Amino acid sequence: MEPLSWTGAWGVWLNPLLGLAVAGLVAASLLSVALSLLSAPVRRQSLPDGTLAARDGLHGMADMAGRAFLWLTALVLALYLLLPFALPYGALGIVGELSRRLLPVWIALGATFGLSIVFKRRLGLYGKLFDSTIGMAGFALVVFWVFTAIFAGLFDMIATHDPLTALSGMKNKVPGTPLAMGDDGVYPHYLLGGDNLARDVFSRMVHGSWIVVQIAPLATIFAFLVGITLGLPAGFYAGRLDTVLSFLANLILAFPVILLFYLLVTPEMVQTGVPAYMAMVLFLFPIAFFAVLLNARLSPRPVLRLVVLAALFILGGWLYLSMVSQDGTPVDFWPDALDLFDVPGGILVVFVSVVFVNAPTVFRIVRGLTMDIKTRDYVAAAQTRGESPWYIMLWEILPNARGPLIVDFCLRIGYTTILLGTLGFFGLGLPPDSPDWGSTINLGRRLLSIYPHAAMVPALALLSLVLGLNLLADGLREESLKD
Amino acid sequence: MTDTATDPALEVAPGEPILEIRNLSISFFTRTREIPAVMDFSATVRAGEALGLVGESGCGKSTVALGVMQDLGVNGRITGGSIKFRGEELTTMSPARLREIRGRDIAMIYQEPMASLNPALKVDRQLMEVPMIHEGISADEARARALEVVRDVRLPDPERILDAYPHQLSGGQQQRIVIAMALMSKPALLILDEPTTALDVTVEAAVIDLVRELGEKYGTSMLFISHNLGLVLETCDRIAVMYSGEAVERGRIGEVFDEMRHPYTQALFRAIPLPGADKATRPLIAIPGNFPLPDERPPGCNFGPRCDYFQKGRCDAQSIPMIEVPGDAHEARCIRTDEIDWDAPPDISDHRESPEIGEVVLKVDGLQKYYEVSRPGLLGGGEAQVVKANETLSFEAHESETLAIVGESGCGKSTLAKVLMGLETATAGGVELDGRAVGDVPIEKRDTRTVADVQMVFQNPFDTLNPSMTVGRQIIRALEIFGVGAGPRDRKKRMLELLDLVKLPREFATRMPRQLSGGQKQRVGIARAFAGGARIVVADEPVSALDVSVQAAVTDLLMEIQREQKTTLLFISHDLSIVRYLADRVMVMYLGHVVEIGAARDVFAPPYHPYTEALLSAVPVADTHVEKKHIVLEGDVPSAMNPPSGCPFQTRCRWKSRVPGDLCEREVPPMVSFAPGHQVKCHLSPEEFASMEPVITLAEN
Ligand code: SF4
Ligand code: SF4
């Protein structure tokens, strides 16, 4: 097999086209900026016949050229993605083959966007996201990684090779290198090259996304549950409770994050069981949260309440015990027969640290929102109905604080993803051969100056996901403000 | 035009137009479409004249003002017509010239005084800035002028005020400073956008008085924007009534009030409580339907779907132009002005029986509520201060009775409501509900029956419903909590019946509150309050935040349900017009005291408590036949943290001098009884009381 170049034979004329389009776009924007600096903006004028004169002259032309080049760029990019399906293997090089591998993601992405845009008026805040370009871009990036993770992690579709097996002769090979021993039925190229253990970088990156997409949101959810459960009463009752909780939150926030991680994740600490004990406490919060939530809602209907709460405690308790009881740590009391799953020690620790670091900030946001919302008339109305304080907090206040919380949630998944990366980078948390992005970057950095691709690929992946989450948060904020 | 057009700095002779708006259209542009906010609007303000712009919220009246200021934001644009200020076209003016005019010749006063004040600058600096920038006069001169203007707006102790920061002043004082600021540059045109909506009635009356007087003194022309017809009557010479983006009627104020020639104007006047309206014999007539959204305007006449005189094929055939009607430049946007019999009395089909007043339901005896607030000292050792929110209140309320509680902010009416609801407990004294003592039982300790018995309707329709729960769910929750209904199915049925009761379509059960208009939300709030068969409903200004045309309907509904369910309604309000219309008995509160209580007809007729008298005079009445005695109260309501000694009202009372000695300052007056049940808390002698004249007289006409 021939090595693949980045864009193959067809790239010869697609690349200049793209270059042209981008250059034109940049020139037009620069011109437009320069013009607006030189001359005062012309106000739109109404004409006697009721029509409006848009900006004319150079301004108008710069605007129009800019728009045309933008469309051209988008068109060429679309060609890169779509052409490979009409061409033979390798005709559009590595880019073309990557696009081909990602086919299921494109289909899922297209379907999601198509359906969402068609029904956007009926989808509330989520639907409104599709009115904002920034929000759509962010959503696309995030969903791209979510679908990649799902297809790779659950259906084993996108990756070309096993993320953990090394193939001989592929050590540190550049992107597009053909396999040294071309077996039948094996994908013939390392699309994005091989790492220093001769594993396929592309497959590792794709499989790594599954780990990131699972852990980051889950850990963030836990952090939110803890922050909300403590922030609501602090804001609602204020007074001494608030003083104490806020002080604790500030104490934790004042602690250097990385140091905290080091402390929590070092094997000596794990041996003493501190993280495990912390896990015991932290994982109680979700159960407490849902118990109070349902109890408050169902209190006027005692029978239903009994059933629901019993179910919650049995199921939740079981999950909880399976979660906190770990073989090989001081907290190992739960019989293995009943232990549903053993969370790998590293991940549990990662969870604890993420929750520990994020919960205080969430606490402060929730506390502030609660203080604001509790002065509303509908809260007073609930009080005059004789509702319990927890009902008011969870059903009257919390749902109306959701806007800022959702935005913060997106941002916080981003931080958590970076945190995971940081942890992996220091070799903490997840096992060393795990394909998650942080660990991969860490492995690749040693040869960064000679073979940058092994570290660059996961680094770019991480960058794009976090960027997507930030854009999504921005879009959501913008659209929720319009309400 | 004369040469005033070429030299705008020249003074304009009285009667010359200062502001001429011709066929103005303003639209707001969203990404997808254009939303017309003002269409074909024409008006002229002459020198020394005040033009009132009235209409409900969303009718475009504020947009007109912003259009004159050329301050429409990024999305708003003038799409047609012209605005001439002293003959100069504003729509095509250069930004530099516009800035010059805006600061010096046109000044604007907004509803929120703090929006126009810089919180970080002392008052004198803010005032001096204006002429220093626009006229380049020296600081000393500017300071002297500031002092003069502050005196002009009748602020006490001008030197001290000039040296204060805005947040150290009360709302009324802030608004006066804003007016002073506007006057500093001696503008030719003053635009006032709901300048008193955020103020208390007696303060509002004083500010309005001031505005009118200054207009005369400085010869300033005014564009006065308000939703309150009474205020406009008191301040303006001409009026333009707006509806859904268009001026529908225009003319001299007296003509429009007495010989209105547009069905909307007529409907508006029938919907507001004027003296003489009465819930039994002359009820208010609500305008049916809802205000059309800007993108759902009907073809032809905008008012068509709600108009009693609508004729298919004519009213909806073409857009309706302004048509001249007899009078002084009197115009109306209606093609049937000649055909309608304007003097026909409104047809009141349902005569309602006044309900029988029943047993005593609520008995409040010597109720006292003090709060302790500790002023935060530096080391936490701040001395505790006592706010005396309620002072020995005693009154009774009967079944099926409407007891109005009247007073301005800080009078203690909200605290009273909280104690009744159980959100606060009384410091002393007792509250009895159907013979059960509830005054010192907080809501958590009250049994379900008691909680369901005392319910509340809140003031702000946009805040009264939980925005993230469907309407049906919220009512069902109330039913669940009050233990009404046998099961989920039964409660759902009850919920739908409650929606019927408040005259909302049953489909609303699945709607979210944001899909409802203000009036509809308030109806849901009423349904929720009555869910548990309440014996007492405390309605805290339930209609004051609603538009005029909706107020009547909601008020009506409240009284209808009350009649059917024999509820006791405690109607908290500062609006004496509506109180006069619907209350059986009235209780006037001032600084935590009940200063007067009695049957409505006794309270609204002399002898009055001096405060009631001032309150009656302060409320603007939209009726040209009414003659009001002019009583303006000085100053603001004192703080409840530091109430005056003796009579609570003594700092502002105009009758105080008639009481011998310093009795008013030394002793809290006793309750004096007049007619049965009519009591007044005042030291005045019976002879003085007898000498009081009625504040409001209806001229026979
Ligand atoms: S034009 Fe017709 S619908 Fe419009 S106000 Fe006149 S009578 Fe009513
Ligand atoms: S007691 Fe004196 S100060 Fe008080 S209201 Fe009567 S006359 Fe005025």
The CATH first-level class of the largest domain in chain B comes to Alpha Beta
Mean pLDDT of chain B: 85
Please give the order of strands in the largest beta sheet of chain A: 1-2
Task: List unreliable stretches of 5+ residues of chain A.
Answer: 42-55
Number of strands of chain A: 4
**Major sheet of chain A: size, sense and barrel closure?**
2 strands, antiparallel
Distance between the termini of chain B: 42 Å
Quaternary state reads heterodimer
Examine the coordinates and then state which fold CATH places here, giving the name of the CATH topology of the largest domain in chain A. MetI-like fold
Strand content bin of chain A = under 5%
Tally of distinct domains of chain A: 2
CATH class of the largest domain in chain A: Mainly Alpha
How would you describe the shape of chain B?
globular
- Biggest sheet strand line-up of chain B: 6-7-8-3-9-10-12-11
CATH-assigned homologous superfamily of the largest domain in chain B:
P-loop containing nucleotide triphosphate hydrolases
- Judging by the overall fold, what is the CATH architecture of the largest domain in chain A? Orthogonal Bundle
Topology:
The complex is a heterodimer of chains A (483) and B (701).
Chain A: H1 11-38, E1 45-46, E2 52-53, H2 57-82, H3 93-101, H4 103-118, H5 124-128, H6 133-155, E3 177-178, E4 189-190, H7 201-237, H8 239-253, H9 257-265, H10 267-272, H11 274-282, H12 284-298, H13 302-324, H14 345-373, H15 377-384, H16 389-397, H17 402-425, H18 437-444, H19 453-481
Antiparallel strand pairs in A: 1-2, 3-4
Helix pairs in contact in A: 1-2, 4-6, 6-7, 6-19, 7-8, 7-12, 7-14, 7-17, 7-19, 8-14, 9-14, 11-14, 12-13, 12-16, 14-17, 15-16, 17-18, 17-19, 18-19
Chain B: E1 17-29, E2 34-46, E3 50-54, H1 61-68, E4 76-85, E5 88-89, H2 95-104, E6 106-109, H3 113-116, H4 123-134, H5 139-152, H6 158-162, H7 171-184, E7 189-193, H8 201-218, E8 221-226, H9 229-235, E9 238-243, E10 246-252, H10 253-258, H11 263-271, E11 323-325, E12 330-332, E13 360-374, E14 384-398, E15 402-406, H12 413-421, E16 428-433, E17 436-437, H13 448-453, E18 454-457, H14 471-481, H15 488-501, H16 518-529, E19 536-540, H17 548-565, E20 568-573, H18 576-582, E21 585-590, E22 593-599, H19 600-603, H20 610-618, E23 626-628, H21 663-666, E24 671-673, E25 679-681, H22 686-690, E26 696-698
Parallel strand pairs in B: 3-8, 3-9, 6-7, 7-8, 15-20, 15-21, 18-19, 19-20
Antiparallel strand pairs in B: 1-2, 1-4, 4-5, 9-10, 10-12, 11-12, 13-14, 13-16, 16-17, 21-22, 22-25, 23-26, 24-25
Bound molecules: iron/sulfur cluster (2 copies).
